[in-house]
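Q: Please design a sequence for this.
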């Protein structure tokens, strides 16, 4: 006796497995920890060096919201009061 496989059910199971496998990758990518470590990122300012006055900073919705950085692709959790060694004064 032959068993018929439902292709849509098989595809659903594959999609579910791929989705579960991607969760840790997406969670890690949100903060881009390896890049943050290599640039010695801190969530606090160092003197007048802070992300909010850096040319690489991409501001959030308001001046106090978390933003992004051109150095950290896909990272949207950069503090405007943070700093790193890649800091460049905004013009």
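A: Design:
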């Amino acid at each position: 006796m032959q068993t018929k496989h439902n292709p849509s059910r098989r595809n659903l199971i594959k999609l579910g497995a791929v989705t579960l496998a991607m969760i840790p990758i997406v969670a890690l990518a949100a903060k881009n920890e390896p890049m943050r470590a290599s640039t010695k990122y801190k969530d606090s300012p160092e003197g007048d060096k802070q992300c909010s006055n850096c040319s690489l900073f991409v501001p959030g919705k308001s001046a106090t919201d978390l933003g992004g950085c051109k150095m950290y692709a896909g990272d949207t959790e950069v503090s405007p009061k943070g700093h790193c060694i890649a800091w460049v004064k905004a013009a």
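Q: Thanks. Anything notable?
A: The longest helix spans residues 7-31. The beta strands are 57-58, 68-69.
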